[in-house]
Amino acid sequence: MSASSESMPTPSSRTASQPSAARASLLSWLGVAPFLIFALLFLILPTGMLMVGAFQDAQGHFTLNNIVRLFDDNILGAYKISLQISAASAILGTLLGLLLALAAIRGGLPAWIRPTLTTFSGVASNFAGIPLAFAFLSTLGRMGLVTMLLRKYLDVDLYAGGFSILSFAGLTLTYLYFQVPLMVLIIAPAVEGLKDEWREACESLGGSGLAYWRHIALPVLWPSMVGAALLLFANAFGAVATAYALTGSSLNIVTILLYAQIHGDVLHDQNLGYALALGMVLITGSANAGYIWLRKRSHREAA
């Protein structure tokens, strides 16, 4: 009886533990408070303002005219070009990033290659905007370094062949500078999850290298690859500073059109800009939702 009574918590000990648990919970909420405040100020409230402003006119009255105007030929064309550039850079970035990750992690290269690639990817995936546009203009512009070297030493004139850094191909190539490193960072954990035992088991059963990739490796990597491609698509679709600094108004993409509607002197229509932004939020939100779902699925399969 005495032993059992000693093992049971007394009312005073339970009362003392409650304030301790409350303090721990309060400290936890204080720790996450900066993130919640940041999300509220820079994500939730701006998105709410976009949703409200998209259904208002200049006088603040309810209207559907802004949504209807999204189907004008000029705006639909801007969305089409933006979707095409985002899809092209996402697909190429996914393939090139996957090959780089496989070479660095599974290719048997020297040990220093992997940390070097990871460090570079962490920096390059965040290098965008005006500095990136200036770098590509200085490299592949009409008077850029690479353009002049090719013309002088190999007698290759990129611009005579139809290439332009201010075109669809030029902007897609520029986006690849941060898309490929981002893909390396995303897909590296999935590549690491490929176990050597799987290849050994395939070879012991008479399977070739092609059979291993077709029936084992690619099915395991597929959810992560598609999810990463969706994230790269959303990343490119929302890019504005790089495109604006590189092409100006020579390429009609939705981010530049949005900038002109909100801050421009000629096409200024703030509520139409809100509607354009709302359409972008829906597209990028759908891509991010698909990425999150596929990421959870790949984690379940890996477990």
What would you note in describing this structure?
Residues 79-293 form the ABC transmembrane type-1 domain. Belongs to the binding-protein-dependent transport system permease family. CysTW subfamily. It is a multi-pass membrane protein. It is found in: Cell membrane. With 303 residues, the protein is an all-alpha fold. It has helices at 2-7, 11-53, 65-69, 73-106, 113-124, 130-140, 145-153, 168-192, 196-204, 209-237, 241-247, 254-263, 270-302. Helix 4 crosses helix 8 (168-192) and helix 10 packs antiparallel against helix 13 (270-302). The chain is globular. Residues 1-6 have low confidence and may be disordered.
| Shape summary | globular
Low-confidence spans: pLDDT under 50, at least 5 residues? Answer: 1-6
The major pleated sheet works out as:
none
Query: Measured on Cα atoms, how large is the radius of gyration?
Result: 26 Å
The proportion of residues forming helix, as a percent range, comes to over 70%
Name the helix and strand elements from N-terminus to C-terminus, one letter apiece: HHHHHHHHHHHHH
State the secondary-structure class: mainly alpha
Total DSSP helices: 13
Number of strands: 0
Mean pLDDT across every amino acid position? 87
User: What portion of the residues fall into strands of 2 or more residues?
Assistant: under 5%
Distance between the termini: 46 Å
